[in-house]
Each structure stands twice: as structure tokens, then as C-alpha cells.
Fold these 2 entries.
Entry 1:
Amino acid sequence: MNIYAKLLLIWLAAGLVSWKSDLVDKSEIRRELSASTSPVILGNKFVPENLVAQAYYYAEQLKIKDDAHIMISLRSHLPNQVSGYTVYNDDRSNGGTIQVHIMLGERFSFAQQSRTLAHEMVHVEQFVTKKLVKCDAKRYSWNGGPCDHVARISYRSRAWEQEAQRKGSQLYIRYRRSHANTALTSAK
Ligand SMILES: [Zn+2]
């Protein structure tokens, strides 16, 4: 066998090993996911630990006990001047989990990020309990009602936003009172 044939074989073997390890990793992740019975909240490496801890506090206060996977990210650019937003994917009808991604603006103060996080966690509760259901890319259903085009309802008139504003502010105030000794800084 010449040197090129040998190199090709080594390369193929290396490819096979990495493909196999990829499969192993995925099945391990699946096992971990199916073993969890309460929300798992993670932040990417830019998210301060106490913001993740705060999300756990809000989940507990909102009694979110479902097998939800919540990811928090800080973003430099957010659409339409918002301070944060949440997207979700509900795989529960297929035996999977509900996956939620909360995006917070990184240019905001830690206090503002905390406030926004409380607001977004109320949306998580709305998604988990199916009080708020995304019918398709443009329409939402609230409290078992019809699927309405979200663009036709002003932000302030949306029932889910009114609830998130009210409950989110209460949650944030409760958090600040019960964590009076925790500095409101973004120090990791
Ligand atoms: Zn909102």
C-alpha cells in the first residue's frame, strides 16, 4: 500500500471515530434531558451566574415544574428597541420537552436585565401552561381563544404582555426584597 492510500485510510478511520463519538454525545444528552423533571436553566458564558440563579427563583415563584429547558443569552442587537424577548419550541406532544430561549440586551444595566428576565419568565410560564400558544409564525392564542394575528393587536393591548408586565414587576420586587444582600451587579 502506498503512502497516499495509508493516509486516506487513517483519515477515513479518524472520520469514523469522530462520527461515532458524535452519536455517543447526542444519546448522552438525550438521557440527561429525559432524566430531568423540573426546569433546567442555563446561561451562555456571557451570562452572569446570579442572573441564572434569579431565573431559578422566578421559576420557583411561578411554580414552573415542567420539564422545560431554558437558555438565557445576552445579545448586542435586539429587534425593535426591546430589552429582551423569548422564543420557544414545544416538543411535548412528541414525547420531548419544551425548549425556551430568552434573549436579553447586553447593553442594559444589570437591574434592567433582571427586570426584563422576570417579565420573560412570566412568558415562559404562559408557554409551559399553554395559556399562550403560538399557532403559527404570526398568530397567537390566549387562554384557549382563537388564533389572532399578533401584528393586529397593539403591544399594550396584548393580554399576555399585560400579565407579564404586572406579574413580572411583582416578581422583580419580591426578588429584590428577598435578596436585599445580593449586590445588583453583573459581577460573575
Ligand atoms: Zn413580553
Entry 2:
Amino acid sequence: MSAAAAAPPCAAPAERPVLRERGQHEVFCGLTGIVWLHRKIQDAFFLVVGSRTCAHLLQSAAGVMIFAEPRFATAIIDERDLAGLADCNAELDRVVTQLVERRPDIKLLFLVGSCPSEVIKLDLSRAAQRLSRQLAPAVRVLNYSGSGIETTFTQGEDACLASLVPEMPAEPGTARSLLVVGALAEVVEDQFQRLFAALGVGPVRFLPGRRAADLPPVGTGTRFLLAQPFLGDTARALESRGATRIAAPFPLGAEGTTRWLAAAAAVWGTSPEKLRAATAGGEARARQAMAPHRERLAGQSVFFFPDSQLEIPLARFLSRELGMRLVEVGTPYLHRAHMAEELALLPEGTFLSEGQHVDRQLDRCRAAKPDMTVCGLGLANPLEAEGMTTKWSIELVFTPIQGYDQAADLAGLFARPLVRRARLEV
Ligand code: SF4
């Protein structure tokens, strides 16, 4: 039976049927998030407490040159540590002390847990508290886990941001403010700042900020918009501090961006005329810039392997704004509340799958023969060798894709592999 024939029947968005898969995964771990997070928080340092494998992953994902002064590193757990012959806490204290002495620019240090640190049950939360006390007030030390056999690579950002929430100061009073949650490129942040100002929405703050000291306040007046769809733990932590999530689709594409802005505008009571005035120009510009890509992509079929948790918003964008046909939309986790607005916009009968059984999904993909397959790096090369056209999902997190002025770039990321394949076939 082909994937299309096996598609579950359509249903109202809230109860859309989903194929749940449990089996072998093909994913990167949450350490990957360090690659974009260290660029975003400019005085933070990420110290992975892990193995040589973790160091290799980070090094190759970030493509760091040997003479650079990067703001991440790996404290290697070696055989003596694993055998319990060394005092890991003493070793860690020594490494951290050396690091902060050598790098006075570090204001926020994340101890990032890994599979090996979890296997030997090294308590990084106690280590972070101890080191924070020692190094205060110059350096704040936090910890989170980037390990992942069962996780997705974007969960590293979620864990990192969730670790920041308890550190956020309390917002005095109940005055309303907007918090945009999720690491965004600075250029995108600036564009959104201008749009919110035009909508009369504010004050607007961003999590994470550009510097360690920029931690925004949070309280019962805080309304937050998720800029990324993989921030379930961060959202929960913010809600436990009294903040309220504004339900919205994600700001991908012209439509997604307008709906995302409109959701905040509705909370602030912005008039429809003011909303139109603030968004019409950006939306028209985005649609015009996307038009050549739409010509290339319309009618092409796309198959998503579960990898980044961006799959559902991307599928909505590709089908509604670029006319692509969705064969299967796989997602590692389906957060029904955070995805409700996105699910409502997907075409009826869209085949959704959650979790992964990679062999079964590969069978469905090969049977469907999609024009494009969106997947992780580990699957892309073998599928390309089989003649399929692929898009690396990780590129969609490394590249600024949110907002009106990035909509055409996002469309271009999907058009390029098809153009390249067409050229190769000439
Ligand atoms: S999966 Fe585990 S061992 Fe492998 S790089 Fe990630 S944290 Fe390190």
C-alpha cells in the first residue's frame, strides 16, 4: 500500500488522526543548539561535559577554525572519570576556574550535560550552583542537558531557554508586556520590533537576549509569543511564572507572519485597519519575492521525516503559500496545544506521523517517490544516492527564516535543491 493510500481519513483539526511511530530514530542530539545559541547570547559560554564524540559533533556542526576563540568547548570525560578513579567535580571546578580566568568576557556559563555525564550521574545542577556561588557576581553558571538518544536537536535550545526562566527577574505589577520566545537572528528581531511598534504592541522583549544581563522580567502581565515551535518546556516554565501564551501559528511565510502578529495585536486591541496598515506592505513584498519560487515549487510533492519540530509550520507554509503537495508530515513530537493553529491550516487529509520508525518511514518515502524529502543529515546522503532530492532540516534552524523579509529566502531553500537536481539531469 502506498503512503498516500494509507493516509488516515481527515478530521477536525483538534482530533486529526496521527500515525504514532516508535522505533529506531535518525536524529542529532541537543548539543547542536549550541551552534546558534552561542552566536545569539554574545557573552555566554557553553561548556559541554562530555566525551570526544560530543566534541567532534560540536566541532563539525560549527565548523570552527583552530585559531578561533570560540565560546563553547568540551570538558572531556575520560576513562579515569568513567571508571570512578577521578573526582569529576574537582576536575570540573578546575577547568571552569581556568576558563573564566582566561576569558573575562564570559558573563554566563552553561554547563551542558551529555550522554556520558548522565551515565556517570554527574550532578551538573549542583555543580552549577556551587560554581555560581564561587564566581558571583562576575559570572552566572547554569546547566541544562543536551544529551539525546531519544531527543531532537532543537530540544537543546528548549532546555537552554528553560534554564534561563528561573533567573528572570519578577515583573513588578500587572502591566502588560510582550515576550517573544525563541532565538531569532538580530535582523529578524529588529524587523519584529518595528512591526510591533506600528501595531501599538509593547513593551516587547526577547528571550534569549543578546547579552547575559538582558534577562527580561516576567510576571502575570507577561504575554508571550513563541517564535519557534519546539519550546514546550520553556513555555511551561514561563507559565509557572505567571506568563500567558498567545496562541498563534508561527511566523513563517507571509501568511504565518501576519497571523502571528495579528494574534498579539488582538490581545492589545489593535484595530483591523491599523493591523492592515502595519502588515500590508511586508506581506505584499514577501508574496512578490516568493513568486519565482512558487513557480518552481507549485505542484511538487514533499515528504517530511521527523527531525526539527519545524515540520508542521513548514508544511503549512509550503502547501498554502507555495502550492506544494504534502505526502507525509512527520514530526518528532506533536504538541497539540502549541500546534492547534497550524493544524487548522493544513489541507484536509494531510498524513501526519509522530515519532519515528525509520525503516517503515523510508519504505513509505520510497513508495511515494516525492519530488522533495526534508530530513536530517544522516538520511540525506543515502537518499540522494538513490536519486531523491533532499533538503537538510538543520539548515532551516541555522538560517534566518522568520518574518516577511525572510519568506523568499525560506522558499528559496526549498527551490534550490530542485533547481540543482534539474541542472544535474540536463
Ligand atoms: S548523542 Fe550523546 S554522546 Fe553523542 S554527541 Fe550527543 S550528547 Fe554526546
